[in-house]
């Protein structure tokens, strides 16, 4: 090589480096402290500590004032005790009122109390003297013996006694030294506690400068607000130093704060609800943002307070606005609760009554429910609008029945639909009875079988007050609506009613009493409120009268929609206005979903199984139960039990007319109209022979 390297050959090179282990060092071990330091909990603790450090001078001065005031209160109490201040105040009141007897009793009590007090003091002094007279000589003798003799020269028992006394003395000195250190601290703490603010809910750990101070609600604020409502039992309770019991302390609940309070004796939740406007003012909230209601008991107050301005925001788009289909058995997205949670409103096994003043969102809410039902390919829609309103025109292609108008023909069509629903209930009941296991109600599995005709059937009537007040069809419509509401839920039949005139005359009381879901937008008075939400709701503090016209448009008070006693719901809004139509695209998507599942509107589940024709003669024979003579009133009762949908409204005239068509009628026996079994059997034989 001659000291020269060949071209292209690799040459060795020495690197300066540090020898390390083969196994890498875990980054987790190095960052545990850092992760803890940056954790949200640690950051919160640091923020609280920093805030308290900044406020330390103010807190120290406040505590010092509490200590001084506590000593002052102790001195005042001692002076009152020493001078019989409470009894003397009674005597002064009696003197001012001119009640000589009360004044005499108060003075006698002062003398008796003084005598008893000095008597107790004499007893204590006597016992101290007796104990000292016994213990002092014994102690002196033991001290002298211990000073003059060594323990070795004493009797063993005496030496042990002196050792025990010495040990006890050392323990006593140690305890006394500790008390000299702890005692002053305890004294100061007790004085600060005595001198604290005693007005309702007062505290000293406050943070008034936090960013969300306006929204902050705690037990202190609630107690103070309740203490200034002007309710006599509450005033007396706080005046005597009482402190409210919070069974549920203030906690975040959606877009607000929830507390549950056990009210003192003599106070009910209704009393607080009656002063809701004053309570809202005391809490620094709008009336709409403050909801006091009765809890599980009359003396338990459930209070939900919204964050400031939380209810002013919109709800955003309807969740199914642009995509998706729906199963009505799972409910329909209806709106946002006051807590900011999406409400999945029930349709199956539910009936709805929606109302409010014009322009507040009633029809839009009904439209949202129908849009949800339309997106279920198994659902059938019947829609009747008792007025000249195009609000539901886009549903025409999706609905099996759609009528709109103010003439008698629309009212007649609506009543006919209710009649058909009543007949449909009978048919569905028989179909359910033929299924394996005799299921008690329609399920999703049964609804998916087109041949059974147990699909969801949703019938909506807008401006239903026009129908119920119709001079010709109103009474019949009310009877049929109540029947469908009571019995249709387990057959997959849903009735949706909407009105802007919820009065005792326009809405049958049985409708309000039996609907599952009541929804009230802004209403004018208590009658309209309870007509939609149920009797007693206004008294219980559930009030749609507090919703402001126009300002709270789209916001409603709902009962039965969720498991809560009530909900304040901001309903989703699917626009259908001039130049803005978001309803039609959803309906078109619903039609596309319907086609994908091979279903048609014309026979969207109209079952091949038809209801058996009603045969009064056969039914009368069935309810005779083998008896020779049955009173007509018993026959009518048995017929109503046998087939309520057909015979529930029958009278003696109906029964007589039905029997007359077969050539006989009731006869009198023993002064009572009866139906004879031989007449029924003869009529059946004659008819069967003709057939």
Protein architecture, described:
The chain is α/β, with parallel strands linked by helices and 691 residues long. It is built from 23 helices and 19 strands. Helix 4 packs antiparallel against helix 5, helix 7 packs across helix 10 (276-283) and helix 19 (616-623) runs antiparallel to helix 23 (677-690). It is elongated, with a radius of gyration of 42 Å. Mean pLDDT is 83; it is low at 1-10 and 602-611. ATP binds at residues 356-363. The chain crosses the membrane at residues 121-143. Keywords: ATP-binding, Membrane, Nucleotide-binding, Transmembrane, Transmembrane helix.
Question: Brief overview, please?
Answer:
The protein is α/β, with parallel strands linked by helices. The protein contains 23 helices and 19 strands.
Subunit arrangement of the protein? single chain
Beta fraction:
5-15%
Q: Main sheet: which strands, in order across?
A: 6-5-14-13-12-7-11-10-8-9
Q: Profile the largest sheet.
A: 10 strands, mixed
Fourth-tier CATH superfamily name of the largest domain: P-loop containing nucleotide triphosphate hydrolases
CATH topology descriptor of the largest domain: Rossmann fold
Q: How many alpha or pi helices?
A: 23
- Which CATH class of the largest domain applies here? Alpha Beta
The total number of structural domains is 4
Structural class: alpha/beta
Could you report the average pLDDT, rounded to the nearest whole number? 83
Distance between the termini: 131 Å
Low-confidence stretches: 1-10, 602-611
The global form is elongated
What's the helical proportion of residues? 40-55%
CA-based gyration radius: 42 Å
- In CATH terms, what is the architecture of the largest domain? 3-Layer(aba) Sandwich
């Amino acid at each position: 090589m001659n000291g020269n390297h060949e071209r292209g050959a690799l040459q060795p090179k020495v690197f300066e480096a540090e020898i390390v282990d083969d196994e890498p060092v875990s980054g987790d071990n190095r960052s545990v402290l850092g992760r803890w330091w940056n954790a949200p909990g640690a950051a919160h603790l640091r923020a609280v500590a920093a805030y308290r450090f900044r406020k330390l001078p103010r807190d120290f001065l406040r505590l010092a004032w509490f200590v001084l005031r506590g000593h002052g209160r102790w001195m005042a109490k001692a002076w009152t005790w020493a001078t019989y201040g409470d009894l003397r105040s009674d005597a002064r009141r009696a003197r001012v009122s001119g009640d000589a007897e009360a004044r005499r009793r108060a003075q006698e009590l002062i003398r008796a109390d003084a005598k008893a007090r000095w008597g107790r003091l004499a007893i204590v002094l006597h016992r101290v003297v007796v104990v000292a007279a016994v213990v002092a000589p014994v102690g002196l003798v033991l001290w002298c013996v211990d000073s003059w003799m060594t323990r070795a020269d004493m009797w063993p028992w005496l030496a042990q006694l002196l050792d025990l006394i010495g040990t006890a003395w050392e323990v006593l000195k140690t305890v006394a030294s500790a008390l000299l250190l702890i005692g002053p601290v305890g004294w100061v703490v007790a004085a600060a506690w005595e001198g604290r603010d005693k007005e309702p809910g007062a505290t000293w750990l406050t943070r008034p400068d936090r960013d969300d101070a306006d929204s902050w609600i705690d037990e202190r604020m609630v107690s103070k607000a309740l203490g200034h409502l002007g309710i006599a039992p509450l005033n007396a309770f706080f005046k005597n130093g009482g402190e409210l019991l919070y069974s549920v302390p203030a906690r975040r609940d959606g877009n607000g704060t929830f507390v549950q309070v056990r009210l003192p004796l003599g106070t009910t939740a209704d009393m607080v609800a009656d002063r809701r406007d004053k309570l809202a003012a005391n809490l620094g909230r709008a009336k709409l943002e403050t909801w006091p209601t009765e809890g599980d008991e009359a003396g338990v107050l459930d209070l939900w307070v919204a964050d400031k301005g939380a209810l002013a925001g919109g709800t955003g788009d309807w969740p199914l606005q642009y995509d998706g289909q729906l199963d009505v058995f799972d409910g329909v997205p209806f709106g946002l609760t006051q807590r900011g949670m999406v409400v999945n409103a029930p349709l199956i096994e539910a009936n709805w009554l929606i109302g409010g003043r014009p322009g507040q969102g009633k029809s839009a809410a009904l439209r949202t429910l129908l849009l949800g039902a339309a997106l279920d390919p198994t659902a059938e829609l019947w829609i009747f609008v008792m007025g000249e309103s195009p609000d539901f025109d886009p549903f025409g292609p999706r609905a099996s029945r759609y009528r709109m108008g103010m003439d008698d023909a629309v009212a007649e069509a609506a009543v006919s639909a209710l009649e058909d629903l009543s007949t449909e209930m009978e048919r569905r009941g028989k179909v359910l009875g033929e299924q394996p296991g005799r299921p008690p109600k329609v399920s999703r599995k049964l609804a998916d079988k087109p041949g059974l005709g147990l699909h969801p059937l949703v019938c909506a009537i807008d401006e239903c007050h026009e129908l119920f007040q119709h001079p010709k069809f109103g009474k019949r419509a009310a009877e049929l609506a109540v029947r469908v509401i009571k019995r249709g839920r387990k057959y997959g039949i849903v009735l949706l009613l909407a009105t802007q005139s919820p009065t005792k005359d326009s809405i049958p009381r049985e409708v309000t009493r039996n609907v599952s879901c009541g929804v009230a937008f802004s209403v004018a008075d208590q009658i309209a409120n309870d007509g939609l939400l149920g009797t007693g709701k206004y008294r219980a503090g559930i009030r749609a009268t507090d919703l402001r016209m126009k300002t709270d448009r789209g916001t409603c008070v709902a009962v039965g929609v969720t498991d809560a006693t009530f909900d304040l719901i901001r309903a989703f809004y699917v626009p259908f206005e001039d130049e803005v139509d978001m309803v039609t695209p959803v309906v078109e998507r619903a039609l596309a979903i319907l086609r994908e599942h091979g279903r048609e509107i014309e026979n969207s589940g109209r079952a091949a199984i038809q209801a058996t024709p009603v045969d009064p003669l056969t039914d009368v024979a069935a309810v005779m139960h083998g008896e020779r003579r049955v009173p007509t009133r018993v026959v009518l009762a048995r017929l109503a039990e046998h087939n309520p949908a057909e015979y529930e409204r029958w009278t003696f005239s109906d029964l007589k007319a039905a029997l007359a068509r077969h050539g006989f009628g009731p006869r009198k026996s023993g002064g009572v109209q009866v139906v004879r079994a031989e007449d029924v059997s003869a009529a059946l034989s004659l008819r069967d022979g003709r057939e």
